[in-house]
Write a structure and sequence with these properties.
This protein is of the alpha+beta class. It contains eight helices and 14 strands.
């Protein structure tokens, strides 16, 4: 079944309702003591941490989306449930992270968000919704309809001209990257060639807000290197923001520049190709070039 523009608008409104309801629930718990548990995941602490709020937020989202799943014959992939592989049989699937950035949430710092996407069987994101409970900011996009911030058309300023500060959004695990210091030195040299005189690091957020802040705080970038072991974020960490990036014209790709593999057949992890988000193609090429010399 091919969804029409009207279908996509209806489904996006439903996803926005679900994201905001989950965000309200998360906000209710943001100042409370919450039990933190570990789950089987990749090798980073951020991927292993889970709370009762993650599960409650997921349940809230599914309550809102349940009718759309049956009405439009959609599959479902969500972080806190087992992948039933239905995403390979249906034409589209909801791809949900009920609370990305759980580690930031447990530390009571900004950096967590609700992320809901609708992805085609081919792996193309056609709806992306992100809600930040801390700021109450809503971001969404629909394929070929543009990107929106708080329901108003949004085109972030992605130009390099006149900008002097570059923001590198990273996961905390990258701080343990063996040639980290070499990378920072090489990047600063390259940025000077582009007339940047300051490099600042942002390392507190989850993948979803790392991507959104790459647009909000442009120029900058966010990436996950390819690696042989499971990890590198999961499909639900990138599906919604990829749609938003696509609609702003900013590059969101695998590390090698190919399209993001958002319906990976053998895993939900993204380690096989990595991820690279940037404000524009020139920045993406610069980051790729610097890191390739160190890999």
């Amino acid at each position: 079944m091919q969804l029409t523009s009207t279908d996509l608008n209806t489904l996006c409104e439903t996803a926005i309702e679900a994201a905001q309801k989950a965000g309200s629930l998360i906000s209710e718990y943001s100042t409370k003591d919450v039990a933190v548990n570990n789950k089987e995941a990749a090798d980073s602490l951020a991927s292993q941490v889970v709370t009762e709020v993650d599960v409650k937020a997921q349940n809230t989202i599914l309550e809102v989306l349940s009718l759309s799943i049956s009405e439009y014959d959609l599959a479902l992939l969500t972080e806190e449930s087992v992948d039933d592989k239905s995403r390979f049989a249906k034409d589209y699937f909801w791809c949900i992270d009920p609370m990305d950035g759980t580690l930031a949430f447990t530390e009571k710092t900004p950096g967590y968000a609700v992320s809901i996407a609708l992805v085609s069987k081919s792996g193309e994101p056609v709806i992306g919704v992100v809600f930040d409970p801390t700021t109450q900011l809503l971001y969404h996009a629909i394929k070929n309809q543009g990107a929106f911030k708080n329901n108003k058309s949004w085109q972030p300023d992605l130009q390099l001209e006149g900008k002097r500060t570059f923001t590198l959004h990273i996961d905390r695990t990258f701080l343990r990257y063996e040639p980290f210091d070499e990378f920072i030195f090489a990047l600063e040299e390259k940025l000077q060639e582009l007339n940047f005189n300051k490099l600042q690091l942002q390392k507190k957020a989850g993948a979803v807000l790392n991507a959104i802040w790459t647009l909000e705080q442009a120029p900058g970038c966010y990436f996950k290197l390819p690696k042989p072991t499971p990890g590198g974020g999961s499909l639900w960490d990138f599906a919604a923001t990829a749609c938003i990036f696509n609609e702003t014209g900013a590059p969101a790709s695998s590390f090698d520049g190919t399209a993001l593999d958002l319906n990976r057949s053998d895993s939900t992890f993204m380690n096989h190709r990595g991820v690279l988000y940037a404000g524009n193609a020139e920045i993406a090429d610069t980051i790729r070039a610097v890191l390739k010399t160190l890999l």
